[in-house]
Amino acid sequence: MVDNNENNLYLPFELRPGTDVTSKFIMNDKTVKNIIIHELLGSNISNNLYHSASTKWSDGTKSDVLYVPTEVNNDQPPILIEIQNSIDQAFMIRLIQYCTRVYERFQVLPVVLVFVVEVNFISAKSIENHIKVGMNQLVALAYFTTCQSASLSLLEYAGDSTVRFLYSICKANMKKKGDGELVEIIDQSTEQIRKAIGLDEDPILTAEKCKGFAENLLETIEVQKRKLVEVYELNAEASQKQQKKYIAEDFEFIESSSEPGKPKKWKKIYDEGKAKGLFISYTSSNSLKSSYHHSKKREKTRK
Q1: Tell me, what DSSP letter sits at residue 17?
Q2: Please, how many CA atoms are within 13 Å of residue 127, restricted to the half-sphere of its CB?
Q3: What is the DSSP letter of 189?
Q4: What residues are paired with 56 via a beta bridge?
């Protein structure tokens, strides 16, 4: 459900940050594109010089995102972006193949940017010491992507302007998706009604056909209703799972590993907790920290 306030926005599980569909429409936004290009190539690059290009290659493979300038050269190379949950040998081989395909198409090697949820490259761990309100825009983009938070309210640095902007893109995409489904229902309904109006046959036959059109229309409405109910139930389930992630043992370990009144050393706490078999639901110290602060906010609200 879309709310006018990003703070109250809860993204469907399949549209949460870090998923393929969300990452791709975020990376193809013009403002986000300019952020990435300026960080990688310098602020002297003109806004909107690059456009999103096809990522389908001659061998049938498909990469995630590709930016290409109006004129490709060594000073303005293509930019290849990949979003991954983890890095393994198979991905590295694919990445090399993608770079080869880019070179074959443009005769210039690309600049490569990889966002990773769990490990090296631009990851939750690599940006850990750079996260703050007013953080670098590329860091904010990585923070948004690797946290995979369905709600802005779950993030410790929800006040960062770039992070809020990225969630506003998600909100607009949700509205567009919902509007598209509504238009589809209206089109189908209009077609059935026009068929009924256009009938000019025997009254009995006309009545039977009108009944058939009405049954088809009712079926269309019921199908869409079931879809809406399923999405609502999935979102509610995802929300409950998010709230249950934070368990007592994790909380006790964090408190016992912290000095009162001093900043928590989240990387150290996370690594030590993982070694003890804790923090099973978390992929990084950053996601653990976000969940911890959200839990503390809920405690204050209950009091």
Answers
A1: T
A2: 26
A3: H
A4: 62
Neighbours of 294 (CB within 10 A): 20
Are the C-beta atoms of residues 197 and 217 closer than 8 Å to each other?
no
Q: Distance (Å, rounded) from C-alpha 187 to C-alpha 301?
A: 46
Q: Which of 22, 15, 77, 74 is nearest to 50 (CA)?
A: 77
pTM of the model: 0.48
Going residue by residue through the chain (303 aa), what tens digit of pLDDT does each one get? 344 455 555 666 666 776 777 878 888 888 889 989 988 888 888 888 999 999 999 888 999 999 999 999 988 999 999 988 777 888 899 999 999 999 999 999 999 998 876 544 555 566 777 777 778 888 888 888 777 676 777 777 777 888 888 888 887 777 666 656 666 667 777 776 777 666 666 666 667 777 777 777 777 777 777 766 665 555 555 545 544 544 667 888 888 888 888 888 888 888 888 777 777 666 678 777 877 777 777 676 655
- Intra-chain end-to-end CA distance of the chain, in Å: 28
Distances (CA, A) of 165 to 32, 37, 144, 212, 279: 9, 17, 10, 48, 30
State the Rg of the chain over Cα.
Answer: 24
Using an 8 Å Cβ cutoff, are 20 and 64 in contact?
yes
Distance CA 213, CA 191 (A): 9
What kind and span of H or E run contains 251? helix 248-256
Q: What is the DSSP string of 91-153?
A: HHHHHHHHHHHHHHHHSSPPEEEEEESSSSSEETTTTGGG-STT--HHHHHHHHHHH--SBGG
Q: Which of 246, 289, 256, 244 is nearest to 270 (CA)?
A: 289
As a whole number of angstroms, the distance between CA 240 and CA 252 comes to 21
- What is the SS3 assignment for 274? helix
In whole angstroms, give the CA distance from residue 42 to residue 37.
Answer: 7
Helix (DSSP H) and strand (DSSP E) numbers for the chain: 9, 5
